[in-house]
């Protein structure tokens, strides 16, 4: 037998490891977002594709440059920067000019992520920070919505309003909801409405979400409590005054609720680590979303709600710990 | 089978990798040229050598005497000549005192070994016999069995659980034993029950071993022993998790199974108890699964204690490819070995060999707070948070977060996508806290 003693590895147990790496998780989330990307390009044409490409390339480049300047090892290969880019793009209007998308990418990666130390250390979801910064600084460009033109070039698309924006305006002016037909809900569901790239198709987002559950990337805790509390709270208002408050179904298929619940609120870095905490977090997101949508100054509340709950994450983590094993009163 | 499989919270499903050896009947491993009997083969004080170089010893003879209550003697596993009493490589990674025997090939039993008769099975004499025969828990913890069988009067034991879960991937020794020798296991179980005074008895077996469940079920048919199928999940065989799955009782934090009124024994320990009580033969052999991608022909071997690992690998046709990592025990909780001169001790249940290409040390990344370590932790503590504090030398905070409740199952490290060696840091923190407690 050869003398093998010298070539043996020594390390502490366990000696086997699950296949899933950080990079694999990031890649899986990217794959899950591809249907939504495709649908946005279908409805909004080349401008949407441009926004996607600029955001992605911008984030990856910003990450690489930033790490180089800081003299740290490169990390863009872990896929988190590219993922942030896609999420950012999905949170922008299709008509976003390239320079604004690029600015968003830099804000997301540099200000919201690398300044805190990079992946794992950022307290807020980088894509959402960038979106909100842009929304506040460039309100005009950030609320110019193109009407969808399925399969068309999208270059000469008309400007339109988002369903949520329409609702807010109508309620503010008349105290009444605009009139709706059931057919619109179906349109909203497949993505035929004005809005951010990733908001428009509930169908594509659900397909991606199913993939994430199947791959066990996310658990039900955050999405279910988020969506559930929007439906319940939104439903209560609707039952109280259906003329003034929209139905839970409308809440579900419009705006960034599904994108936020499945892909943004579930961002691991910025949400609680324990299942109990996740439920508190998701519920908080849902409640704040409804309150902003119905009573706030912005038509859409998902981004703000998630950022607000991101801020509460350390606190939630501290108070929502699982009950440790061995602390149960003895059963007979 | 209609019974609903039982389980616990947390845990995970590593690939079970048992196929290579599960269908191989236990073979007898030939004697090596040199037998190394370490004096430390159990938790508790090491034994004291009582033979000298040049002595000839018989099979089953005491070569190291027990020192203190939580200790058992160690025995020669074959007849031969003592050629050294010196420090030798030990599974713990250090060189520790051992009695080295050159076998004479006759394999002669000592002639004073005697079992107990049916009328001699009083609790005290059974305990003495088990101590004299060096019986320790063979599930890995190597706690002397006679001590476990002596609960203080204020902690009565009403439940006996026999652990046939064998949840570690790759290992198939318990499985083979259940298939090949159910009567011996059941005899041991009855002896335990006799000492404890009519407890409820459960035998827990993971559902992925239907053949074993069937055999044991049949053997238990006319008794009031309950065979409990368990969900396939690691670490189903961990003492506290097993107790919870079967009885719904939680062993209190910092407590022992007896605090929940339960005694847990591994199936192999039960078999060893039967041998010791019926024949008086001490624990001098062990069934080991030798397996993994790095060995030519995986096998289940009946091995004399003191056999160097090198010899086991030879008995299995040598290495397959370039060996990279050699593990005594299973892949989740076993210890990596640096030398093939290490001998088999009483606690070993498997020898696992990985090739160079199976060992790929991926670099550690930052914690992405994915929460996977939290959701798999059977102790339901927060590995990521505890390790963050422990790495900052804030062991007090780690302690308040429950670091001492960690059962070191390794689930957190297994699942962490960032390759953070969580359980290693947790072990260090536990060590630091225990050291502080001792000094205080
Ligand atoms: S599994 Fe690893 S990356 Fe995930 S929370 Fe735990 S320590 Fe962090
Ligand atoms: S913290 Fe301890 S008990 Fe929990 S998973 Fe890790 S090793 Fe197992």
Q: Can you characterise this structure?
A:
The complex is a heterodimer of chains A (332) and B (440). Chain A is mainly α and 332 residues long. Chain A is built from 14 helices and two strands, in the order H-H-H-H-H-H-E-E-H-H-H-H-H-H-H-H. Chain A has helices at residues 22-44, 46-69, 80-90, 98-111, 126-137, 139-142, 163-174, 182-190, 202-214, 221-240, 248-253, 257-264, 275-295, 302-319, and strands at residues 145-146, 159-160. In chain A, strands 1-2 form a two-stranded antiparallel sheet. In chain A, helix 10 runs antiparallel to helix 12 (257-264) and helix 13 packs antiparallel against helix 14 (302-319). Chain A is globular. Chain B has 440 residues and is of the alpha/beta class. Chain B has three domains: 26-101 and 282-357, Ubiquitin-like (UB roll), CATH 3.10.20.600; 135-279, Rossmann fold (3-Layer(aba) Sandwich); 372-439, no CATH class. Helices cover 28% and strands 20% of the residues of chain B. Chain B contains 14 helices and 17 strands. In chain B, strands 1-14-13-17-15-16 form a six-stranded mixed β-sheet, sandwiched between helices. In chain B, strands 2-8-7-4 form a four-stranded antiparallel β-sheet, with no helix packed on it. In chain B, strands 11-10-9-12 form a four-stranded parallel β-sheet, with helices on both faces. In chain B, helix 2 packs across helix 5 (182-196), helix 5 packs across helix 8 (267-279) and helix 11 (383-391) crosses helix 14 (422-439). In chain B, 57% of the residues are buried. Chains A and B meet through helix 1 of A and helix 9, strand 15, strand 16, helix 13 and helix 14 of B. The structure holds iron/sulfur cluster (SF4) (2 copies). One iron/sulfur cluster binds at residues 376-379, 381, 383, 406-412, 422-423, 426 of chain B.
